Amino acid sequence: MRIGVVVDNEFDNDHRVQKQVKQLVKANHSVFVLCFDFGETYKLYTDIDVHRITINRTVKNILVLFSTRFTFYEDLWTKHIARFTKINAIEALHSHDLYMAKASRKAIDQNRIKIPFTIDLHENYPAAINSYQWATKSWRKFIVNPKKWYAKEKEYLDYADSIITLSDSFRIDLINFFPELESKKFATHPNLPDFKSFQTFEKKFPKISFSSKIPTLFYFGVVAKRRGIINTLPWLAQLLTEGLKFHLLIIGPIDKADQKEFYQHLNAPVFKENSTYLPWIDISLLPSYLNSIDIGLAPFEVNPQHDSGVANKLYQYMYGSIPILATECKAQKKLIISANCGLVYNNFKSFRLQLKKLLENKEYRNQLGLNGKKELLRLYESGADQEFLKLYK
Which of 63, 107, 256, 318 fits 73 for a cystine, CB–CB 3.0-4.6 Å? Predict the structure, then answer.
């Protein structure tokens, strides 16, 4: 089947989309990708056909900012998707993120063709946009109008013939909210890492310079208040003051709106010898870092957005056989408890208790980590992240 994949970003940096495309190609489908080109140097692909829309990144961000109130962004995508599907004789369309559903459906209708359309939900978008600082602070909230997405969600889901969710619990939540969706075709696609790529990375970069004589707590991913890590820093500072011994390693870009608060916390004297912050590493180096740390942090705020699925970082920690210390977000709590691969907490008191358990017992940490790796291998071998392929049979 000739499948068109649409993503409103750089395809090259979206690991979920990249992995899905590899799986589709392996299943003998012809894959065509439509994405943005921000004027950078991109990889040339031999097994897929990548079409890029040249646009300035700032212009794109401005269009997104106004996209709830005006149709400029939607019209841009409708035009390009219609052309893309026509010239490539696309037989099925697979678009990523809820807000791309309307433009995708309009493009199909504009071409007067009948092809199946799948929307791939990377997150609970209405909840997500209502947690973004750029969308909810100062004058921007009047332009973005994020609360409107709660009313638009059902309309946009209805544009699709099939829906992919991060977890089964998210699918159930959607059907509970919108019973009519039960007639849709659903598939789940958890963010499992690409095993073969990670194994290749490990062989290529077996060692890194980072090491610590005391247990290392690791946070990997975007640094933001909504991700919970910034609110966790005062807790960690207090525990260091109380005498707990650990090193904190944080790797990931900081949301612009949260930079000041992040550095205010991290510049506390107690963190001077007990923390390391790196704004970015190539994903190929991640397995090597995972081999050098002891506890993975997943301190997400408990809300509908983070309840919708298990974040990449948890599966990445599991790949590295690292025990997880996480908040009680629905999907991640279910995974951690069922796999017995970490501990969960809901306030500072339980955070302190669970962290002390992990810091004081290396054998316990190792066992939880091994449990996580075992469960990840089971999920991988069971084809948990290949269920979506059934939509194209």
Answer: 63
